[in-house]
């Protein structure tokens, strides 16, 4: 790959922020010096999503189709998701979702450290994924302890992935690094607010809900910087405050 980087006319990767990150020792894996040297010929292009496959107006996997003008119908997918995971049916409780590999890169260890406090809050959490067996076991133990709050499915199920995106209120994506990421964009497509760490493509595709972005109606999610349980928990608490302000929440969804 080094030869390719030396002789290429142009070097591209999957997001502008990741193009900057790979010029640092943390993300360059020994090639950061060369990438910095060739930075005039290096750029990032955000990955795209399949707008037909991930379309809440036509998605065959979800219970109820909806659009930006019929957001109230999204609630029927939330109820279907709660039934699918045998969670109490409650249209007011904020429902968090996660789909992904259960590995440290995706920040699953941060979520595990937050879950004991999260279960004391008025919320529900559903997860679809597989990966590190120790993480799988810890998650299953928590789901067994708090069946009214946490529900997990180990593995992958395409139809369930679509239902989580459509039915969840909030999507957790606290990755330590993420060259681009797709689920945050699927979430935005389905009016599900993503919580992401400020890295790679997550930083490029999610605009943090701050007073100025909320005023301009450009906020599209919650962004935090430090890869720590405390920073993630603070982002979750900030999200819950916004969730309880119905008008503000709807403006973020659309």
Structure summary:
This protein is of the alpha/beta class and 254 residues long. The protein has helices at 2-7, 16-21, 25-28, 32-37, 74-84, 108-118, 133-145, 158-167, 183-189, 200-205, 211-216, 229-243, 246-253; strands at 11-13, 42-44, 95-102, 124-131, 150-154, 170-173, 193-197, 222-224. Helices cover 43% and strands 15% of the residues.
* CA(first)-CA(last) distance: 42 Å
Order of helices and strands: HEHHHEHEHEHEHEHEHHEHH
Note the total helix count.
13
Beta fraction: 15-25%
Indicate the structural class: alpha/beta
Q: Could you describe the largest sheet, including whether it forms a barrel?
A: 6 strands, parallel
Q: Quick check: average pLDDT?
A: 97
Strand order of the largest sheet: 5-4-3-6-7-8
- Enumerate the spans where pLDDT stays under 50 for 5 or more consecutive residues: none
Can you characterise this structure?
With 254 residues, the chain is an alpha/beta fold. The chain is 43% helix and 15% strand. The strands form two sheets. The protein has a six-stranded parallel sheet, with helices on both faces. Helix 6 links the parallel strand 3 (95-102) and strand 4 (124-131). The chain is globular and about 60 Å long.
């Amino acid at each position: 790959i080094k030869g390719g980087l030396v002789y290429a006319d142009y070097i591209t990767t999957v997001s502008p922020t990741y193009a900057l990150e790979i010029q640092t020792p943390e993300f360059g894996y020994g090639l950061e010096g060369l990438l910095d040297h060739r930075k005039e010929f290096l750029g990032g292009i955000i990955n795209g999503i399949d707008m037909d496959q991930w379309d809440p107006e036509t998605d065959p996997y979800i219970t109820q189709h909806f659009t930006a003008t019929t957001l109230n119908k999204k609630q029927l997918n939330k109820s279907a998701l709660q039934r699918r995971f045998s969670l109490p049916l409650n249209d007011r409780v904020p429902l968090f979702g996660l789909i992904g590999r259960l590995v440290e890169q995706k920040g699953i260890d941060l979520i595990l450290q937050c879950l004991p406090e999260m279960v004391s809050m008025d919320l529900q959490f559903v997860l679809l994924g597989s990966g590190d067996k120790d993480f799988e076991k810890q998650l299953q133990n928590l789901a067994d302890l708090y069946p009214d709050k946490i529900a997990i499915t180990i593995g992958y199920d395409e139809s369930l992935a679509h239902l989580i995106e459509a039915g969840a209120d909030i999507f957790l994506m606290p990755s330590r690094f993420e060259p681009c990421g797709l689920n945050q964009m699927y979430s935005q497509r389905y009016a599900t607010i993503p919580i992401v760490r400020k890295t790679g493509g997550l930083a490029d595709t999610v605009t943090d809900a701050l007073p100025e972005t909320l005023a301009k109606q450009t906020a599209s999610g919650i962004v935090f910087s430090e890869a720590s349980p405390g920073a993630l928990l603070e982002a979750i608490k900030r999200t819950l405050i916004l969730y309880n302000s119905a008008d503000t929440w709807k403006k973020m969804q659309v």
